Every structure is written in structure tokens, then in C-alpha cells.
Amino acid sequence: MLALAAVTAVTVITTAAWSADAPSGPSAAPRVEARSAEFLAVGVVHDDKMSIHLSRLIDNAPVRDAAINVVLRGTAHTVTAETDGSYSLQTKDLTLPGAAAVEFQVTQGAARATLRGTLEVAAAAGTSDDKNNARQLWWWVLNFAVCFGVLWLISRRKKAAQAKEPV
User: Fold this and answer.
1) CB 96 within 8 A of CB 74
2) Scanning 19, 45, 87, 125, which has the fewest C-beta atoms within 10 Å of its C-beta?
3) Cα separation of 129 and 123, whole Å?
4) Nearest 5 degrees, angle CA 14-CA 18-CA 19?
């Protein structure tokens, strides 16, 4: 009986540890890819900052001298050119979970292009889509406890019946 209780306790503890260690979202950073007839824009989001890499489709050469505006969730944002040839955008709109339409408005000299894509931002790492994990875990703990109690009562009853029997 004691062995059954120990196995139950170990099972509950390891199940709780596994559920705490389980990843709650995708491991890759959220990204958006948008293309036009001339350009390809790839945006990678880290917290509230998006790094944007703009290149020509013909030869995949980076475009360093363009002016870019980004329309995210209906709001226009100006983009800052970085020294490595990429562009960056910092806004709290990037931290909001869910899908968002992204529009890159690129101007390079006389050429203008509009690139559209969708950014899929997962929920924050501490949140879980399934809010019943803890409730289900405690339900199983309760079930094991009830089963253990029933088995213990049956064994006590058998011992009491054996003690009353005349030998």
C-alpha cells in the first residue's frame, strides 16, 4: 500500500515538473515576409523591436538607401536605417499577440513599392493557451487520492474481518 502511495506521489510530481518545463510557444522569433515585383522585405521581431532586411528580388542584393514606412495595425511608423544596412522599427504594437497585417511602403529614388505581409505574434511566454492544465492536474491528484483511500478502507475491512474470525 505504501508503495502505491509512493508511485502516485512520484507520478504527480513528475507530471507537474514536465508541464512546467513544457515550451509554451514557438521557439523561433515572429517574422513577416513581404514581396513586390522588385523587393523582398523580411522583418524579425524581438520584443518591441523589428529588424527589417530589404533586398532586391533580381539579385538578392541588400537595399541600403531606401526610405521605408511601415503600416502596422492601421498605424504608420517611420523606420530607422541602421549602419549594417538593415532597418529597425520600435513600437509597442509589436508586442500585441495575434495576427497583424503589415505593409512596407518602400521609396528608392523614383521607384515606389508597397509590400504586404502578415505578422503572427504568439502570446507572451508566461501565458498558456490552455488554462485548464492546473485544474486537470489537480483533478488527477484528487482521483488518485480517492482511489488510494478506497483501497486503504478495503484493506482495513479485510483485516478487521480476519481478526474477528475464530481460528
Assistant:
1) no
2) 125
3) 8
4) 120
